Amino acid sequence: MTAAVIDGKAFAAEVRSRVAAGVAGLVAKGITPGLAVVLVGEDPASQVYVRSKGKMTVEVGMNSFEHKLDASVSQDELLALIAQLNADPAVHGILVQLPLPGHLEEAAVINAIDPAKDVDGFHISNVGLLATGQKSMVPCTPLGCLMLLRDRLGDLSGLNAVVVGRSNIVGKPMAQLLLGDSCTVTIAHSRTKDLKEVCKRADILVAAVGRPEMITGDYVKPGATVIDVGINRIERDGKQKLVGDVDYASAAEVAGAITPVPGGVGPMTIACLLANTLTACCRANGLPEPEGLTA
């Protein structure tokens, strides 16, 4: 068996196109969604990511507000900026780029964001709303994974899903979303006994452990759908290479469908950030939410 490739790059382009259409409809009503991104420090990877977010925000017709702060900024100064953005009616989404410098308290910063503008879905209120099946802002990467799964499989009801990884950013919210679509969900992790056997029972296998190529073909049930969330830089044959948490070559021989790295889940994250900003703007203005762009 050779797995079908789930093209996240193409699907993300489709999502951005739908977002752009939704934004155009709001602009016609005199409303322009706005996304504010806060970058603290000079981390090169974060700088590249923020530039990409800003570019795509403008491309779909939204306003982009970038705030770049020195790495030495105080907690109080950062919280004052967030309070200013919370109060700004032109800003519908606020994202603070993580990680933050060590002297700043990430949890306090995240929870200072207005939950209605928390387009990352990390605020404790949104975490609680998602866990209890209520309307919330949903973390972008798990939302992107869910969209890819629905597009590939249609109705997910009754399928066995295994999420390998228990982070607050991906593993836990991914499990909540799959439960919301009536999957039977197992969260596995580094201390799971017989991890291979647990994974082999999965119709849907989501790998989000941050360990390069840990999930090999013998972890995969024949015909399963494999979603690889991992992005790891490794050196191979003297060259830097980007790989996932799944050993693609061996898993693709067993799976029914699989996301590649790069070009799978990664592009969906920014597309869903834009979708969340559109959703937040619609909610703020009492307008219907965009179809197919939420959980």
Written overview of the protein:
This protein is an alpha/beta fold and 295 residues long. It has 2 domains: 85 residues, Rossmann fold (3-Layer(aba) Sandwich), CATH 3.40.50.10860; 128 residues, 3-Layer(aba) Sandwich (Rossmann fold). It contains 10 helices and 11 strands. Strands 1-11-8-7-5-6 form a 6-stranded parallel β-sheet. It has a 3-stranded parallel β-sheet with strand order 3-2-4, with helices on both faces. Strands 9-10 form a two-stranded antiparallel ribbon. Helix 7 links the parallel strand 5 and strand 6. The longest helix is centred in the first third of the chain and has 20 residues. The radius of gyration is 19 Å and the shape is globular.
Give a nutshell description of this structure.
The chain has 2 domains: 30-114, Leucine Dehydrogenase, chain A, domain 1 (Rossmann fold), CATH 3.40.50.10860; 140-267, NAD(P)-binding Rossmann-like Domain (Rossmann fold, 3-Layer(aba) Sandwich). A hairpin with a 2-residue loop joins strand 9 and strand 10. It has helices spanning 8-27, 44-59, 75-87, 106-112, 124-131, 140-153, 171-180, 195-199, 248-252, 266-284, and strands at 4-5, 34-40, 63-69, 93-96, 160-164, 184-188, 204-207, 225-228, 232-236, 239-243, 257-258.
